Amino acid sequence: MKTMNDAMGNLAVLSRAIESSPYDAVIAGSPENVRYTGDVMISTQNAIRDRLAFIVWAKGRDPIYVLCRVEEGYVRQNSWIKDIRDFKEFVTSPIDLLADVLTELGLATGRVAMELEYLGAKYERHLMQRLPRLQVEAAEPIFHSARIHKTPREVAEMQRGYRGTAKAMFATFITATCGEDEFSLSRRLANGILLSGAETVAFNHINAGPNTGYPHASPTGYQLKPGDMLKADSGGFYSDYYSNVGRTAKMGKPTPKEIDLWKKLRAIHHEIADMLRPGRSGRELFARATELHAKHDIPFPYAHNGHGIGLSVHEHPLISPHEEMVYEPGMVSTVETRARWVGEAGYHMEDLYLVTDGAPVLLSDAFTNEEILVV
Question: pLDDT of 29-51, one tens digit each?
Fold first, then answer.
């Protein structure tokens, strides 16, 4: 029988955070935190926005899962949580069932934390109409405190995802041919991500020539030409965890100017990555990236230069001018180094690192892209 200790995430840490919090209960409501807490993803929670799910974890109590009846069998089989309450869609409101559970726990007038960044205003109003004396505050900091440090299982899954995505990217690049269009490249890369072990493709941006100057362009009928740059920024879901890899190639030999620019970008990339050490902050790394881009006269108009990642594609800590959180062992972060001239050309590299007691460990090591790949 599955237990809390079998879950992929830091549920012992989450449990301690709940017990030490000022709240009578903490309620997961977003797909990511319901997945993290219950250790099973309800895919329709993303696809059908009004098919809500909650996990109510009251102090000193086992958590209670609130979900749509059609998902009950799957969750009961795969989650460690045994107390599952279901609502019949279009007949019973999930908010009414949540209110009933809180009342049963003696918390109709209690103080609880919910994910206010996720819950829609109409649902919050409904809950307050049912339980007008309930005190509701934000639960996001509690979930962040647990999810920010990855378990060895999480790290292994993320490394598998990054390696799989990078290999798919390499295979797509080396088989690219002049005359092939971006739609063809995109389909081949998506297929490679799936064949590498991803459940689904999370996002897929692969472009050529002038379209590389855009950050997240959809594929087009643009056909590859000799001398074109190729740029990809793609990811899949591996056990529900994102991969997010950026790589660059060239249809033919790069020019001396392109080689020089790439060497400068790689030097920036490595220096920022090496700063992912305990005690440093994302603000410090962003400031240094700004200095290095200015030194090399490379545009740097970006709001961040990398980010934490996991069940969400952007997690804290960010490499941004506003991030004060310091890195600690067990955190992961991407480093995202790029240069773009809109409608002309773009270069992109993005890797994942594990923060340790010493030097950071590269997890996206299947296709390092130290030099521009020549196709």
Answer: 999 999 999 999 999 998 998 99
**What sign does the dihedral 206-207-208-214 (CA atoms) show?**
negative
- CA dihedral of 192, 193, 196, 198, whole degrees rounded to 10: -150
Angle between helices 31-38 and 140-147 (to 10 degrees): 50
Split at pLDDT 50, 70, 90, the class of 1 is confident
What is the longest distance spanned by two Cα atoms in the chain?
71
**Strand pairing category for 54-58 and 25-28:** antiparallel
The burial class, CB within 10 Å (0-12 / 13-18 / 19+), for 66 is buried
361 burial (CB, 10 Å; 0-12 / 13-18 / 19+) is: middle
Percent of the chain that is helix, strand, coil (3-state, to 5): 35, 25, 40
Q: Contact 15/28 with Cβ under 8 angstroms?
A: no
pLDDT tens track for 86-115:
999 999 999 999 999 999 999 999 999 999
Pair 346, 212: CB distance under 8 Å: yes
pLDDT, residue 254, reads 97
Q: What is the DSSP annotation of 141-163?
A: HHHHHHHTSPPHHHHHHHHHHHH
